[in-house]
Amino acid sequence: MTKHGWWAIAFWAGSSMATVDAALPPLPPAGWPTGSIRAYSEDTPLPQDRPDGMNGADGDAPAHGASLPFDEAARAALQANAAAPSPRLEGPPIPLPPPTRMSDAAARHPGDADDARRISLNLQGVALAAAFDALARFTGLNIIVGEQVRGTVTLRLNNVGWRDAFDTLLDTHGLAMSRRGNVIWVTPAAELAARERERFETHARAAELEPLESRTFALHYPRAQDVQRLLAGATGQRLLSKRGAAAADPRMNLLFVTDLAPRIEQIAGLIDAIDRPSRQVRIEARIVEGEQGFSRNLGARVALRAEGRASVADGAASAADARNTLDLAARPLGGFEAATAGFTLFAAPLSRVLDVELSALEAQGRGQIVSSPRVVTADRVKAIVEQGSELPYQAKVGNGVSGVQFRRATLKLEVEPQITPDGRVVLDLDVTKDSIGEPTAAGPAIHTKHVQTRVEVEDGGTVAIGGIYEQLNRDDVTRVPLLGKIPVLGALFRHRARRDQRNELVVFITPTVVGARCETAGAGGADAGKTGPEAGGAGSTRQPLCQ
To answer: Where is this region: Disordered (predicted)?
Structure first.
């Protein structure tokens, strides 16, 4: 080649380099740190080495100069791996993979450039590596571009946020980022998803080889069988790993657990949290029947005796207002209603007066206490008190054959208390009172009075459930013997009276919190030789076993 030909080639190469440099933005001011960029080669290790020694090179990568299309499926697979790790994985907790976009809140770093800084880019056929180099110079970030990031980019961005510009380059070329501190690794989204999936699989394989540990837990309050079912997932999510197992000894109330060491520690913390004595609630019920107006008179008498200290659901009431106490409705919780029944909340001082007034009204013949059951139950445990009889009736049992069956006519009280943190009691009430009605061909009818509701009352207070009425119509005839049966003249010796009586049923429920016994396990005894969360020995780290 002649001398003039070599000069022409040199001039053309210099012009091309000047054109590329002119297309890149200027260097940042002196106050901004200068970033760096590095491309992978075959002998350069990746930030996260694969177990099989692969360096990220892929023979199926597109040829140099071809633009990678946006791989939506690969990005969706990456986000799915980040959001929901495989439930089959066991062992220590797996950290979530790093974010894949610069605009994500989790991707921000204290050393990043100010988010308010704007950037303008005018790139014409520039390699992707050069585009990320421009962003590195502008932001001061350390960006590592994988070997599979190839192709050119042509874009024009005017006064946009630098994070948006970074994400635009990622999205338009199907790329994703992985951040470690102030170093960002850029690679195709499919490659990053494959690495995360392989990391999880490696973790799962390592968990299969971890040794198992066994520990014995001496339970104080819950039953070992119940805790065993809880760990095995009988009531929900399984807490043991797929290699773990638990066995219970009901005689000694011991629980034996075999599992991975991290899972054993989690189970120990769970047992330490649930092995506490449950507070108890004493439920006292008074079921009273009286004539119409009985509840109003009772409310007035209680209000006068309490000297104006009556308390209703919405606050304290004066003595004059308390005369209508049982006509006021309490506030049911959670939208529960009880048909036409009315509710009233008595404060604890009025509850102490209630028994005296009920006895006085019973002595006057205005009402009677039908039943007064009492029961003690644990917090959030349903208690049932039932009294009555079973009535026989004829029923078909199949193929035209009739048989005798029984149905109950009982007085039944179901209550489930829940103690709130401030010491109040939430009651789930279900009160049923059945009575025998008129006889029929199939058997006697049963009249039912049923109230079901949910209400909150203070410790020692009383909730009154009223508004359940029964209408009784009677025709009474009194006459003089013999003379009252004489035709026509017998009417002079007879007296006919029609009696319409309306009775009211009122149920009074008084919950009282029974204080839990606080004690610190481990002062000798059967557990003195055990230490750690599984026992209450002298060296135990367990807190005092009380709530």
So the answer is: 34-67, 523-547
Give residue 77's Cα distance to chain centre.
29
DSSP secondary structure letters along 460-521:
T-EEEEEEEEEEEEEEEEEE-TTGGGSTTGGGGGEEEEEEEEEEEEEEEEEEEEEPPPP--T
The answer to whether 380 and 492 have CB atoms below 8 angstroms apart is: no
- pTM of the entire structure? 0.50
> Distance between CA atoms of 455 and 430, rounded to whole angstroms?
11
| pLDDT tens per residue, range 179-188 | 877 788 888 8
3-state SS assignment for residue 369: strand
CA–centroid distance for 144 within its chain: 43
Distance, CA of 90 to CA of 132 (rounded, Å): 39
Same domain, 201 and 285: no
Burial of 210: CB neighbours in 10 Å, binned 0-12, 13-18, 19+: middle
Q: What does the pLDDT look like over 367-412, one tens digit per residue?
A: 788 788 888 999 999 999 888 888 888 777 767 777 788 888 888 8
Structural domain for 217, as ranges: 211-274
pLDDT of residue 107: 60
Listed residue (499, 501, 454, 451) closest to 294, CA to CA: 501
Q: What is the pLDDT of residues 104-114, one digit of tens each?
A: 655 666 666 66
CB 148 within 8 A of CB 187: yes
Residue type, 42: E
Q: Is residue 2, in this structure, part of any structural domain at all?
A: no
Q: Which long-range contacts (CB under 8 A, 24 or more apart) does 59-62 make?
A: 61/147, 61/148, 61/150, 62/150, 62/151
**Over the Cα atoms of the chain, what is R_g?**
41
- Half-sphere exposure of 465 toward its Cβ, with a 13 Å CA cutoff? 31
* pLDDT bracket for residue 194 (50, 70, 90): confident
Same domain, 195 and 324: no
Please tell me whether residues 75 and 173 are part of one structural domain: yes
Q: Are residues 344 and 426 in the same domain?
A: yes
Q: Are 85 and 200 in contact (CB under 8 A)?
A: yes
pLDDT at position 98 is 53
Contact 489, 520 (CB under 8 A): no
Pair 111, 188 in one domain:
yes
Distance between CA atoms of residues 105 and 322, nearest Å: 59
Identify the burial level of 161 via C-beta atoms within 10 angstroms of its C-beta, where 0-12 means exposed, 13-18 middle and 19 or more buried.
middle
Query: Quick check: 358 pLDDT over 50?
Result: yes
Residues 440, 442, 444, CA angle at the centre, nearest 5°? 50
Q: Would you call 110 helix, strand, or coil by DSSP?
A: coil
Please list, in sequence order, all residues whose beta carbon lies within 8 angstroms of the beta carbon of residue 352, skipping any fewer than 6 positions away: none
What end-to-end distance do the CA atoms of the chain give, in Å? 96
Both 179 and 303 in a single domain?
Answer: no
Query: Is residue 138 within 8 Å of 36, Cβ to Cβ?
Result: no
Kindly state whether residues 270 and 152 are assigned to the same domain.
no
